[in-house]
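Side project, low priority. Logging it here so it doesn't get lost.
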Amino acid sequence: MSGSIKTYIAVFLLSLFPAAAESQQAAPDLVLLDGKIFTSDAGHPYVQALAIRGERITATGDSATIRALAGPHTKQIDLGGRTVISGINDAHVHLSISPPNRVDLEFKSLDPDWTEVKAAVAAAVLKAPKGTFIYGQIAWKIFRDLAVNRDTLDQLAPNNPIILYPFTGHAWIVNSAALVRLGIREDQPDPLGGRYERSPDGRLTGVIREYALETVWRNLSNQTSEADALKELRETFSAAVKWGITTIQDMENDMPPDRCIALLEKMPVPIRVRVIRMPGTTPAGRDIQEGRPVPRSSNPLITVSGTKWVLDGTPLEGTFAPRNDPGTLEYFQLHEQLTFPQTELAAMLQETLRDHDQLLLHVSGSPAAAAMLSAMQSAGGAQVWASQRVRFEHGDGLTPDLIPRVKEMGIIVVRNPSHGAGPDLHGVFERIKAQPLRSLLAAGIPVAFGSDGLPNPYLNIMFASLDPNRPSEAITREQAVIAYTLTSAYAEFAEKDKGSLEPSKLADLAVLSQDIFTVDASDLPKTESVLTMVGGKIVYDGKVLPLQ
């Protein structure tokens, strides 16, 4: 064959496959070498090195192979044996904004009693200017104590709005000054799925529950200036990149989606943010129009998709159970009241099919899980729902009898490991076989992780790999990282683009300060990222690694 014919054939082939030829010839922009790279890909869980061009990974393998791909302009980072993981995708976050200069109550115990709360409020009033919000995180003792109400809080702090909130966040106890600041009238009607509790004479007690809090959160965030909101959001993102978090999935209850997007577009957002609609309710019903049409962002890192509804509360509050109800945590986990009637569950399913929108559901107790599974069965069963990726957020009350049904319907369970880390002196979860983790994975159910509170992902990985209350449900650290990366991406229909460190996927990754797969469990929460990348761009540099 003559040289001219060979040249013609080569040019012809290049014209047919220009992209392939370019990818073969183009050197990477950056290579990471000599590391312990956990890919989250079960077929090749560990590699030494990877190459990045533009925003995507182009190759993975041993250091010699990847080094050979480098060109004269390729930057190189010697990892020095450091551990690298795909960027953490926190699948359950609540971006929040609140008025500045709030004063937080200081308690000596995690479950303070009324004596301790009174002392803390008295101390806070001395340093809080008139009108400044006073916040206090409480637990079981205070929430069950009927002596703690609007009137007793008024006696302690008549000039400061006080908010006492259980760590679960599904009920507040406030005083009169707070009711005024939050825009709650004495004749405020209950919204669907929510309640403003009243004394026998019809007067507000200061206890606000479930969907009634949605109005309160919105009113509170509306009192936060744009400057203060942006400052708080910047701090949130700054902490995220230092932990190697590259995506958050935000259940937006503090703000309507359009306001959230408007704020995010006024700041340099360093990571991917999925904003999830979390509409409120009115006395007339659910507000299904909020966030419609779905707002769009000019920033490709910001997307809006999915709709979340809260089907029950938590066992601490028992949804709408009386505060002095003698029911135990164990009882409420198995008998917790729903926020919505069954007809609303059926309507939610119709809406998600009509709108081609992912459905996310707060499901804490067993009754809510069972009710929604029955609604899905009635609305077409697995044939309709197995591919829809409906999400159960939390899934704490999934007992063994429910797990096969969850698997059949293709449900993704988004667990929050810190929820299973609280003191369980009576072995509640072991007795009722609730708060599953290993059992879900063994059944083939996708399990993603979200913080929903404690944002440190390595603290949550520690809890998942130890499972203090149910050690039999502990999983490996590798499984925990996959839940926090690849399965979290699957939970937002993004597993083809991110969640694992494989060729063609986005270069979202974190180089860690220590090997999270081998360090002592107690040291896991000390982990930080020394280098965080989103789409091949460095968004956090701890100035630890040399860049050549």
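Brief comment: The radius of gyration is 25 Å.
Revisit when time allows.
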